[in-house]
Amino acid sequence: MSDSVILERAQRFLSALRHCQVLGIAVEAADSHGLTLRLPYSSSIIGNPDTGVIHGGAITTLMDTTCGISTVCALPDFEICPTLDLRIDYMHPAEPHKDVYGFAECYRVTPNIIFTRGFAYQDDPQQPIAHVVGTFMRMGKAAQGGQGLKRDIQGGAA
C-alpha cells in the first residue's frame, strides 16, 4: 500500500472521531513506518489554570488515538481494532502554550492482536513527554457493528 493511501486512510479515520474533532487533533504524517498526530494547545485542555499545563487526559486521548490509528499503517485493509490495553508512562509535563505531537508504530501484528508503541513530545522527539504501549484487538474485515465507521474510512460501501 502506498504512503499516500495510508495518509488518506489515517485522515479519514481521524475525521470520523468526534472527540478528536473537538480537540482539534490532526494528522501530521502517516506512512508504513508509523503515524504522527498533533494536539494543538488550547485553553480547553488546560489541567492546571495556574500553570497552563495540559491535562493528562488530553495527552492520553492523543496517544490512544495515535496508537489506534497507527493500525492503518500496518494492515493491508481497514479493520475495526478496539483498544485492549494502554499504558502511558509520563516523563514530565507538557510545556504550556505549545502543541503536543504523538507518534506510534505497530511493532507486531498477529492474527488476533496488534502491538503498538510510541511517544508524545513537543519540540524534540528525543525529549518525550510520555511513552506509550498499546494492544488492539483485530476484529477482521467482516466485524459486526463497525460497518458505518468502516464505510466512512474507506469512502464507500463496507
UniProtKB/TrEMBL annotation:
Pfam families reported in the protein's UniProt record: 4HBT
Ranges where the Thioesterase domain occurs: 52-127
Molecular function terms, GO-annotated: 1,4-dihydroxy-2-naphthoyl-CoA thioesterase activity
GO cellular component: cytosol
Signal peptide: none
Key words of the record: Hydrolase
Top-level taxon: Bacteria
UniProt name for this protein: Uncharacterized domain 1-containing protein
